[in-house]
């Protein structure tokens, strides 16, 4: 989870640059204009970012925490499998976001619902036979330690 939080901090830079690029290219002057187009653009940018790095084995945050993503046989991911993992990883967020779209609630309640679902999804990994996250199991991927060999 620490790697996940670190990845979130790194993604701030990706969001900033992508948002600036989108705003410049679309000539958006107000943050609420083209909001859904910006969200779709960021979804694609995130997909490119994660698919690219996962196909190489690890993101910068994963390198820092000595974690590598591989397929079920321990081989590097193909672009297709990395993209599938990216799409399935949205299960961390889509159920509560869909629920929140149906029922307008306050910002505090939104945060509680979102963090509550993330906690439930993380706990559900304890029920997997190899205790891996379900999106990894469904994508045919797994996280492994990539500790450098000591001499």
UniProtKB/TrEMBL annotation:
Keywords: Membrane, Transmembrane, Transmembrane helix. It is found in: Membrane. Its main location: membrane. It comes from the Bacteria. The keyword Chloroplast does not apply. This is RDD family protein. The chain crosses the membrane at residues 6-25, 37-55, 97-124. Residues 4-140 form the RDD domain. It is a multi-pass membrane protein. GO terms for cellular component: membrane.
């Amino acid at each position: 989870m620490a790697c996940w939080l670190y990845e979130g901090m790194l993604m701030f830079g990706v969001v900033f640059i992508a948002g600036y690029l989108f705003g410049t290219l679309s000539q958006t002057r107000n943050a609420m204009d083209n909001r859904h187009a910006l969200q779709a653009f960021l979804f694609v940018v995130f997909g490119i970012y994660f698919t690219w790095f996962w196909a190489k084995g690890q993101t910068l945050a994963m390198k820092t925490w000595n974690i590598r993503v591989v397929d079920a046989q321990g081989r590097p991911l193909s672009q297709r499998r990395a993209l599938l993992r990216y799409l399935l990883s949205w299960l961390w967020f889509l159920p509560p976001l869909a629920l929140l779209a149906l029922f307008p609630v306050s910002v505090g309640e939104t945060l509680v619902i979102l963090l509550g679902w993330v906690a439930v999804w993380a706990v559900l990994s304890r029920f997997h036979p190899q205790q891996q996250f379900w999106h990894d199991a469904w994508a045919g991927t797994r996280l492994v330690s990539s500790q450098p060999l000591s001499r």
